[in-house]
Amino acid sequence: MAGEIAHTIYAARLLTHIGDDVSDPSYWIGALFPDIYRIGRTSRYPTHPRSVSLSTIVGNNDFVTGMRVHSWIDDTREKYFREHSALEKLSWHPLLPFAFELFEDEILYGSYDDWGHITAILSTIHADEELLIHNRPHIQAWHALLANYFRAAPDDTSRRIFMEKLQIPSAIIQEVNGVVADLKANDTAQEILMDYIRSIEHILL
């Protein structure tokens, strides 16, 4: 899985591929909605369409297209990391997969220049969200968490706040931040991320 900032960056890249098939801001809400399960007991799978290919990525509205883009990103990333044994090239740690998501978020944050636009969009709840999750306060909490996380490039403090909202224990939060720091100092981690991004570009050619 990709982190929430990374999902935004990759969704922006996919938008250039999809082109005129998307015209509504609900695309962004759809692209960020699926991981709402992180703050509740909602199962991952009802919010993640399965077996999405580039030829089937456009849905029946822009919100659904965003959800399908989210799933395509997750599936493509998982396949790449598995086939290239990407994380096996790094020192093993039980928190490495999640820490790598947060590392990816920090590295990629500067690749998008209009986070204010995304946070403004998150002030609105889309009708399709309530069709999938019949709990408006839960959806509002997810939007607020994302908007706060997107306001500035991640650091130890903003990651801590983000993880606290995910109800992660403080000892684990401290350990995750330590793994992220190690990844930032590791050239191999940077190379893994850049190689993955190049693989996405190759697919979209």
Let me know the largest β-sheet. Answer: none
Distance between the termini: 23 Å
| Number of H- or I-type helical stretches | 10
Overall mean confidence score, pLDDT:
95
What is the total tally of β strands? 0
Structure classification: mainly alpha
Strand content: under 5%
Quickly list its features.
205 residues; mainly alpha
Describe this structure in words.
The protein has helices at 4-18, 26-32, 62-83, 96-108, 115-121, 127-132, 136-149, 156-165, 170-184, 187-203. It is mostly helical and 205 residues long. The radius of gyration is 16 Å and the shape is globular. Helix 2 (26-32) packs parallel to helix 3 (62-83) and helix 7 packs antiparallel against helix 8.
Helices and strands in order, then pairings?
Blueprint: H1 4-18, H2 26-32, H3 62-83, H4 96-108, H5 115-121, H6 127-132, H7 136-149, H8 156-165, H9 170-184, H10 187-203
Helix pairs in contact: 1-3, 1-4, 2-3, 4-9, 7-8, 8-9
